[in-house]
Specification:
It is a single chain. The protein is an alpha/beta fold. Helix content is 42%, strand content 17%. It has 18 helices and 19 strands. The strands form five sheets. It has a seven-stranded mixed β-sheet, sandwiched between helices. A five-stranded parallel β-sheet has the order 9-2-1-13-19, covered by helices on one side. A three-stranded antiparallel β-sheet has the order 10-11-12, with no helix packed on it. A hairpin with a 2-residue loop joins strand 10 and strand 11. The longest helix is centred in the last third of the chain and has 45 residues.
């Protein structure tokens, strides 16, 4: 196998492309947008620079790993600065909690609530660390090809140790009594698009990772990762084609053979698809056997994560914000989330997240000015939900800015907006092919996680097709998507090694058969001649098989 096509240059597609190009494959990457990065995109306007999607860097070792694998110094591509404080959390105009990366500061904050809750908080983190190790070793960093990869004694015991049946909020409530601290520990499930009142308690490892491994910043914003991966991929010899949408993944006789681009067939020995899995199954894979259980009807019936309503504001004033990241909780947080996840409507009293990176990075705005990113979790697109008409968008904007001005340091922000862009679920659906505008892909419910989430390798009805991204195993969030890229690349290389071995075995068997016939004519011992032929087959057998059968077998 030599040629690989990657569909979609989101962070998963870029990372998979780098891994495979570095392993010796010739990789071509196709992206429908003018810029690589997928939802990790960038807006540049009037001297302001905004990250479109992800803004929080966690688990930096996974970011760095891709560059180190290629023998590069990650600091040459994605230098990182630790963010301190980690986050400011507001429960009302005069009620705030500041989370710190520093253990002494964090302890002081927790003891300021109560010593009993400080003890419960740390006890819970210790238990979460044990679960994180179990999840990492048994689920997050391994793929599932067949039922026995999951349904085996080791995995089942590991699953029981994770205590996945409870929801995240109830899980922390057993250890922490103060409702503010409960929310501060549980809300991070929204990072992957699920309510903490619904999400399996497994996902409480997210705040653990934040606190133990820190939150980081890349100069230039998160888009620096997309740029760095693209640069490394090209340096390794890969080809990138932007503004080039893939129309279809071509499946012939149960094997991915390439893609259709601009009505032309682009051949490959394998295809890695980074397009959103639901979109790919409905729009890019026409072969019914390859779709398997993921029929259009099945895709429509699956559960989807929340989406985002985001204001990107360029301000002609610098505000005294002390934290890059801050959260405003609605007083009735449960109702806020029920509005989104149960009733499918814009919340009556929305919670929101603010990102103000100019306190760390002056390059993102003209001198004396700053950027402000305000994100509101909202439901995915659905019948009966918000239509996101211009009038609706204007009304939601005013509702959010009222809260920003009344409950944050941006008390007169409307008077200082000189540049503005707005994204709704319609933009995530239209620009990034996110099914139903669900920013984080398929919702990570218990029935859509681990083995029950779409796999990194297509099922047995199609060889040579692999998937990465937020809707496939192991799930959403930039570090986890980077893991999905690793798993997809490893699955491809595993299959390639197995196929190459099979071709060599067939070539060797043919050599033995031929040798016996030749030995009879020449009077030589069959075994002696066979040995000579097998050596020759080991050198040239794969190339001969490729020429004769048209299937690539080795790199």
């Amino acid at each position: 196998m030599e040629r690989v096509i990657v569909v979609g240059a989101g962070v998963g597609g870029l990372a998979a492309a780098v891994r495979l190009q570095n392993a010796g494959y010739q990789v071509t990457l196709y992206e429908k947008e003018p810029l690589v990065g997928g939802k990790m995109n960038r807006i540049e306007e009037d001297g302001f620079t905004f990250d479109v999607g992800p803004t929080i860097v966690m688990m930096p070792e996974l970011y760095r790993e891709v560059f180190e694998l290629a023998g590069r110094d990650p600091d040459d591509y994605i230098p990182l600065t630790k963010v301190e404080p980690l986050m400011d959390i507001s429960f009302g105009p005069d009620e705030r909690v500041r989370l710190s990366n520093d253990l002494a500061d964090l302890t002081s904050t927790l003891e300021g609530v109560s010593e009993a809750d400080a003890q419960g908080y740390f006890t819970y983190l210790a238990k979460l660390y044990g679960r994180y190790r179990v999840a990492k070793d048994n689920f997050l960093q391994r793929s599932f090809r067949k039922p026995t990869d999951f349904y085996n004694p080791k995995s089942l015991v590991a699953g029981l140790r994770l205590h996945t049946l409870g929801d995240a909020y109830s899980s922390v409530s057993r250890y922490v009594k103060d409702d503010r601290l409960r929310k501060a520990l549980a809300f991070q499930t929204l990072y992957i698009g699920i309510s903490p009142y619904e999400g399996p308690s497994l996902y409480m490892i997210i705040p653990l990772i934040e606190l133990l491994y820190g939150v980081w910043y890349m100069p230039g914003g998160m888009y620096a990762l997309a740029e760095g991966l693209r640069r490394l991929f090209v340096e390794l010899g890969g080809e990138v084609h932007t503004s080039t949408p893939v129309e279809r993944i071509v499946i012939v006789d149960g094997r991915a053979r390439g893609v259709m681009v601009k009505g032309e067939l682009r051949l490959a020995d394998a295809v890695v698809c980074n397009a959103d899995f639901p979109y790919a199954m409905k729009e890019l894979v026409a072969d019914e056997r390859t779709r398997g259980k993921y029929t259009p009807e099945k895709i429509d019936a699956m559960d989807y994560s929340c989406s985002c309503f985001i204001l990107y504001l360029g301000l002609d004033k610098r505000y005294p914000a002390e934290s890059v990241h801050s959260i405003r909780f609605a007083p009735d947080f449960r109702k806020n989330l029920d509005d989104i996840f149960e009733d499918g409507r814009f919340p009556d009293d929305p919670s929101f997240y603010c990102y103000a990176p100019c306190s760390l990075d002056d390059s993102l705005a003209p001198e004396g000015m700053q950027t402000l990113y305000v994100l509101v979790p909202v439901p995915p697109l659905a019948e009966g939900g918000p239509a996101w008409s211009p009038d609706e968008v204007a009304r939601y904007r005013e509702q959010v800015l009222d809260l920003v001005e009344s409950e944050t340091v941006y008390e007169d922000v409307r008077n200082h907006i000189v540049c503005e862009r707005i994204y709704t679920p319609r933009d995530f659906e239209g620009r990034f092919n996110a099914c139903r505008g669900a920013t984080f892909g398929l919702r990570p419910t218990l029935k859509q996680s681990n083995y029950w989430r779409p796999h990194n390798k297509a099922d047995h009805h199609c060889e040579g097709l692999y998937f990465c991204g937020s809707s496939v195993h192991p799930g959403a969030g930039v570090p986890i998507v980077l893991l999905s890229a690793r798993l997809a690349a490893e699955e491809l290389m595993t299959d390639d090694g197995a196929h190459a071995s099979q071709v060599r075995a067939v070539a060797a068997e043919r050599a033995v058969i031929a040798a016996r016939g030749e030995a009879a004519e020449r009077g030589m011992a069959a075994e002696e001649l066979a040995a000579e032929s097998v050596v020759a087959a080991g050198v040239a057998g794969v190339e001969t098989a490729v020429a004769a059968g048209g299937e690539g077998g080795s790199r």
